[in-house]
TrEMBL record:
Organism: Erythranthe guttata
Matches recorded under SUPFAM superfamilies: Acid proteases (SSF50630)
Protein's recorded name: Peptidase A1 domain-containing protein
A GO term for molecular function: aspartic-type endopeptidase activity
Domain Peptidase A1: 59-396
Xref: PROSITE patterns: PEPTIDASE_A1
Pfam hit, one: TAXi_N
Transmembrane stretches, start-end: none
Length: 405
């Protein structure tokens, strides 16, 4: 009840800030729909298929930072504990190496860098903050799996969201990172909207420890119904499975994998609370025991009809010459079974990925470390709801368009 009232207020009072609102419905903007592209076509490494640990970071959220608010597109990442932006976008936070001129019109009046007085917030991050010296600031240092990193200071700032119902919603004093130095693919993003942090100052905690996102057809950059809901409106449908946070990442347990009716044999212990749900990873990564079992099944099923191709650099992944849509349309669905009788079904578009017009490969690849990851290809046509009070996650296969109100 109270929720629909909130929506109405937001709709009829466009331009009036509803601070402290706990329902945010945000459109997820496909990276490839933005012109000019945040990534240059020439530097192809993010788009190239099968980059080991490639950060997919396909979906952007339009967030305005500071006062006056300046819109930025931040990549939504369930695998990042910290929201951060490059320091040229957080002028006003006054990082020591990036003093904006006092009369810079873009300079935000609402940013404050956290001093060591905020020891609690500082200690949540990984930086080498030395609070024994009065003048030191709270710092962070985030290193991503592909070796990209960002370092900077922890600050607090007002974040304003344009909600998809036409309202705006401001969250004051959100703790975030102002990135002074960064390296790797993250340089080409404005920043990251990190969703895997449950400390009292993070975005997901401030909106009420619930969020959900729905992703439709990733191959269609103009699909309009991809969305992120933060707070009370989060869509928590479907059977739930236990969720935990390990190393700042959301993890679940895979109990079984089936291809059609056939259950695969693998070492289940390796998957106990060791499967990341990552909106920043394109592919699904499995440790060798399940990867080999799945690969063998795929190779067997396609042995008669398709020609196996060896692609240099990715010899472990089965690749085929042909047209993914036409030739393997009726490939049996692959199901990940989680604790609690919860399932995630991967159709052809979740299991395979076209790497050239005439070659496609399995989109489940072998993990190079001791973790497993469910990437965004596997999350297509699915709503994923995180309930962080109960520490449960729910998957439901759905047409995201149906969630529009
Ligand atoms: C982001 O939001 C701003 C402010 O509402 C708007 O002007 C801009 O067009 C939006 N950008 C995109 C890509 O939607
Ligand atoms: C909303 O504001 C009240 C007081 O203004 C504060 O106590 C409460 O923590 C805020 N809630 C959120 C979710 O920020
Ligand atoms: C997804 O989008 C691509 C590109 O627009 C299209 O070719 C494909 O048919 C779509 N897939 C489905 C299942 O709608």
């Amino acid at each position: 009840m109270s929720l629909s009232i909130l929506v109405l207020i937001a709709r009829f009072s466009t331009g009036v800030e509803a601070t402290n609102r706990t329902k945010l419905v945000l459109r997820l903007i496909h990276r490839d729909s933005i012109l000019p592209l945040p990534y240059s076509e020439a530097e192809n490494d993010l788009r190239a298929p099968l980059v080991p640990h490639g950060r997919g970071l396909l979906f952007l959220v339009n967030v305005s930072i500071g006062e006056p608010p300046i819109p930025q597109l931040l990549a939504m990442d369930t695998g990042s504990p910290l929201t951060w932006l490059h320091s040229y976008l957080c002028t006003g936070c006054n990082p020591p190496t990036n003093r904006a001129p006092i009369d810079d019109p873009k300079r935000s009046s609402t940013c404050t860098s956290l001093s060591c007085d905020f020891k609690y917030q500082c200690q949540q991050y990984l930086g080498d903050t030395d609070c024994s010296q009065e003048s030191f600031r709270c710092t962070y240092n985030m290193v991503y799996m592909d070796g990209s990193y960002t370092k900077g200071i922890i600050a607090s700032e007002k974040f304003t969201f344009d909600t998809s119902d036409g309202g705006i919603s401001a969250i004051p004093d959100l703790v975030f990172g102002c990135g002074i130095e960064s390296h790797g693919v993250v340089v080409r993003l404005s920043g990251i909207l990190g969703l895997s942090n449950l400390n009292g100052h993070s975005l997901v905690t401030r909106v009420g420890k619930k969020f959900s996102y729905c992703i439709g057809n990733i191959s269609d950059p103009y699909y309009m119904y991809n969305q992120l809901v933060l707070g009370e409106g989060a869509v928590l449908d479907g059977d739930s499975t236990g969720l935990d946070i390990r190393n700042d990442q959301y993890v679940v347990s895979i109990q079984g994998i089936s291809v059609g009716e056939k259950k695969l044999e693998f070492n289940k212990q390796e998957y106990h609370y060791n499967v990341l749900i990552d909106s920043g990873s394109t592919f699904t990564y499995l440790q060798r025991s399940a990867f080999e079992a799945l690969k063998e099944e795929v190779v067997n099923i396609l042995a008669d009809s398709m020609q196996l191709e060896i692609i240099e650099g990715f010899e472990e992944t089965p690749c085929y010459r042909g047209d993914m849509v036409r030739d393997i349309e009726d490939f049996p669905s692959v199901t990940l079974h989680f604790d609690g009788d919860t399932k995630l079904r991967l159709n052809v578009e979740g299991m395979f990925h076209r790497i050239r017009s005439d070659i496609f490969c399995m989109a489940v690849v072998v993990s190079e470390d001791e973790t497993n990851t469910i990437g965004v290809l596997a999350q297509q046509y699915c709503n994923i709801g995180f309930d962080l009070n109960e520490m449960k996650v729910r998957f439901s296969k759905i047409d995201c368009e149906l969630l529009e109100d």
